[in-house]
Amino acid sequence: MTSGTDEVLGYEQARDELIEVVRRLEAGGTTLEESLALWERGEELAKVCRRWLEGARARLDAALAEEEEEDGNPSGDA
After folding, report:
1. What is the pLDDT of residue 17?
2. I want to staple 18 with a disulfide (CB 3.0 to 4.6 A). Which of 31, 45, 47, 67 is the partner?
3. How far apart are CA 35 and CA 32, in angstroms?
4. In angstroms, what CA-CA distances link 3 with 41, 44, 78?
5. 15-to-21, 54, 59, 61 alpha-carbon distances in Å
6. Looking at residues 39-57, what average pLDDT do you find?
7. For residues 73 and 51, what is the distance between their CA atoms, to the nearest angstrom?
8. In angstroms, rounded to a whole number, what is the distance separating the alpha carbons of residues 76 and 68?
9. What is the tens place of the pLDDT at every residue in 12-40?
10. Helices 11-27 and 32-71: crossing angle, nearest 10°?
11. For 72, which DSSP code?
12. Distance CA 17, CA 39 (A)
């Protein structure tokens, strides 16, 4: 389950924090409990990033579809 603060994280913020989580996990030296907490946080951050990217994809697809309609070529054929 994601926290409320995850909902307001921007893509870049979530990505940067995810990079830091991965760096800490790869560096080692943490307890099993700390590693599990980092892993869980990483999963939450990855979901935030995925939602942002899916939203961006939807906006791009909508813009491309609108452009095709304006050009009178809805099938995408040239």
Report:
1. 98
2. 45
3. 5
4. 10, 9, 47
5. 10, 14, 20, 23
6. 97
7. 30
8. 7
9. 999 999 999 999 999 999 999 999 999 99
10. 150
11. T
12. 12
Token pair 């946080």 is at which residue?
A: 41
Residue carrying the six token digits 């913020």: 13
Nearest to 50, CA basis, from 18, 3, 73, 5: 18
4 or 63, greater pLDDT: 63
- Which residue bears the tokens 């869980």? 40
pTM, two decimals, is 0.75
What is the reported pLDDT for 9? 93
User: Cα–Cα–Cα angle for 43, 48, 52, nearest 5°?
Assistant: 145
Q: How far is CA 66 from the centre of its chain?
A: 25
Token couple for 47? 């979901």
